[in-house]
Design a protein that fits this description.
- The protein is an alpha+beta fold.
- The chain has a domain of 218 residues: FAD/NAD(P)-binding domain.
- The protein is built from 13 helices and 20 strands.
- It has an eight-stranded mixed beta sheet, with helices on both faces.
- A hairpin with a 2-residue loop joins β5 and β6.
- The radius of gyration is 21 Å and the shape is globular.
- The structure holds 8-demethyl-8-dimethylamino-flavin-adenine-dinucleotide (RFL) and P-hydroxybenzoic acid.
- The site of 8-demethyl-8-dimethylamino-flavin-adenine-dinucleotide has 37 residues, from α1, β13 and α9.
Amino acid sequence: MKTQVAIIGAGPSGLLLSQRLHLAGIESIVLERHSREHVLGRIRAGVLEQGLADMLRQAGVGERMDAEGEIHEGVEIAFGDNRIRINFEQLVGKTVMVYGQTEVTHDLYDARDAMGGRIIHQAEDVALHGIDTDKPYVTFKKDGVEERIDCDFIAGCDGFHGPSRKAFPADKLTVFEKVYPFGWLGILSETPPVAEELIYSGHPRGFALCSLRSRVLSRYYVQVPSGEKVEDWSDDRFWEELKSRLPADVASTLVTGPSIEKSIAPLRSFVAEPLTHGRLFLVGDAGHIVPPTGAKGLNLAASDVFYLSSGLIDFYRAGDDSGLSGYSAKALRRIWLAERFSWWMTTLLHKFDEEAFDVRVKRAELDYLMSSETAQRALAENYVGLPYD
Ligand code: RFL
Ligand code: PHB
């Protein structure tokens, strides 16, 4: 097989990249390890920045998001029984879209299907070759048969565990990492959300988040120590723990019900530098991870796609390779700003095994956030998403 851009991974990064390239007349083939059902069964992000929502509209996949998603003008931050609403609209004149990543992926699949996009599922043993030549290629097995795709470029959109980052020569990649000693236990339940907007709650027992997918579908998370097992968390235990970490008036109105999904995600901050080696480009979680507290993972994947697709379009239209050679530096600048924000929000709201001094400093930081409009504006500016340039 032959194509212009071989894309590894059919998560939101890979699908959105292939859609944007297609609209610019650039061919791609997407290779995915799992089945489509598996990809569409994953419950992940829920908050889209305006930059991503606009890109989806431009790519012709915004219709269902605009009909079914919810525009949120603010979020609440709680600590014990103290709460503050961060009013995005008033503080920075922007909003966010609450619409599940699962739905975004669904819409992208529909669009790729409608345009005859090639996505090869259950591709095994995907391997990258010749990335530092101008004739890279990818090999894989499909139904036991060895296949090969020759291409001009490879986009590694294969998430944190995929083969693309591992294809860099060891001495060409530097990794910056922070692993937190806890994860998020999340559940999805067919119950009305406890509040109209998201509530991020820092509590002496640990962090909790009230989120939602619609007026009849709620998504809740509680911080749990690393190593905790989902099987040890009955629905009742989850609801009790969640209630204990929310302001009393919120807890008293929480509607509980059976979970329809329950899983634990570890928390990590991670950046690989650079994002490019030869003809290989890392995009999204393949190159960086943020803890989910700032809702930035999917949104960073989207800005990477924006920079890389622009670089590829300039290359194919005008032979201009400046966007491709500048991709890593441009994407990394925005990535590090989001890394900082996600680390800050995680540190502020989670329970750590800390010294008394650090606990007092965090309390002062929350006091400052609750009492200073300037501090609130900084949170709002980052949460709605920093500009792409
Ligand atoms: P993905 O979604 O991991 O997709 C990578 C794809 O590559 C495939 N793959 C392979 N394919 C072929 N061969 C191989 N050897 C392969 N190995 C892997 C995988 O099967 C998969 O289909 O990465 P992508 O596209 O870069 O997208 C990144 C986002 O998924 C991620 O950043 C977000 O979900 C993070 N995240 C959130 N981001 C937000 O912006 N807002 C949020 O509110 C938010 N909440 C979250 C989150 C992530 C969470 N978890 C579970 C990690 C909440 C949670 C709980
Ligand atoms: C979610 O709804 O899954 C969600 C929302 C906000 C976050 C993380 C996850 O910060």
